[in-house]
Amino acid sequence: MNMLDKKIDRRRGLLVCGLAAAIVGQAALWAPSALAESHVVEIRDFQFAPEALDIAVGDTVTWVNMDIAPHTATAVDGSWDSGSLAQGDEWSLVIETAGVIDYLCTFHPQMVGALNVE
Ligand SMILES: [Cu+2]
Known about the structure:
Elements: H1 3-30, E1 38-44, E2 47-49, E3 52-55, E4 60-65, E5 74-75, E6 90-94, E7 99-104, E8 112-117
Parallel strand pairs: 1-4, 3-8
Antiparallel strand pairs: 1-2, 4-6, 5-7, 7-8
């Protein structure tokens, strides 16, 4: 390998490193939070499980309907609503505000749950 080939090889290496750094940088910018977590609430036997969930702002909550009956996860204040979830359906929400968020199933209002968001 002559000197010119070595130079070109080194340039290619730098270019690849630069691209990789740019991609990693973008991914870091797009991530909502390095600490954001995902939580699952199962809907089974006409109950939300767990009924109360402690989470942080920026976390994602996914409700999964394990029952044969359709259910919803609907904020009591009306700020969000999964719509009807059939058996096996799931619906996710990123929680943007702190506080206690009470929710229920609009089809079975005795089904209640709460998100305690710090
Ligand atoms: Cu229900």
